[in-house]
Amino acid sequence: MKLSISEKSKKDIFISLFQLLKNSSSIVKIIFYDSYMYVQGMDKAHICLFDIKIFSDWFETYESISSNSNICIDTNTFHNVLSMNQEQHSITIHYDDEPEPESICIDLISKKGDFNKYFKIPLVDLDTDTLTIPSNAEYDAEFSINSRKIQEICSQLLIFGDIMQIICSEEKIDLISSGVNGEMLVKIPIDDLLEYSISEGEIIDISYSLNYIQKMCITNKLANEIEFSISGNIPMRIKYKLDDNSYVTFYIAPKI
């Protein structure tokens, strides 16, 4: 298996992706299919599920000899190595297509200006099944918001409490957190959203762990906007579109 990325914006996206993943889980399983890379996993508390698909044409090069070659990596180490990337570096990730590879290699190669760096990271064991996520789930409310704005809002809300209450109506969205330090209310007019839809006459009032939402929105490098989809009876979906086909999605269970 071999893939490479040299475009700066895509390198930033790839590094930011694993920054998010290390905040959710210490170990993740990556499956390299013929036409795309797939990552799925859950945090230890089973509150957050991540589901990621990046198609081969998103990478500069993508070669997968086996039809479903898979590995498990330590996300903290993997992200630390990727973060050593400099502007002139290209990132190449590869390993031998053996039945049970023991390590993965990351090469940071520069045409000029920076030293070449080569890393070999041991793989880890993780016994987990891939979950089937319904693709036709219907949500009561969906909206898109600027990623930088929601990142800032989550950081501010977290000062006052660790639970985010979301109230959606046809006119507006309220985001609320409260605690011993007081309460913060953010009113978001519908006209200020990039996209918004809600079932007619519906008023949604539901709460989620703000710590988890903040972790999922800690970077604005994945995409300029984030899609939120919520309903009372299924986990909230937070989705980043990398292009027309590739995506990064998180599902967060509501507070009971």
From TrEMBL:
The keyword DNA-binding applies. One of its GO terms (molecular function) is DNA polymerase processivity factor activity. Coiled coil: none annotated. Residues 136-255 form the Proliferating cell nuclear antigen PCNA C-terminal domain. Transmembrane segments: none annotated. InterPro entries: DNA_clamp_sf, Pr_cel_nuc_antig, Pr_cel_nuc_antig_C, Pr_cel_nuc_antig_N. This is Proliferating cell nuclear antigen PCNA N-terminal domain-containing protein. It comes from viral metagenome.
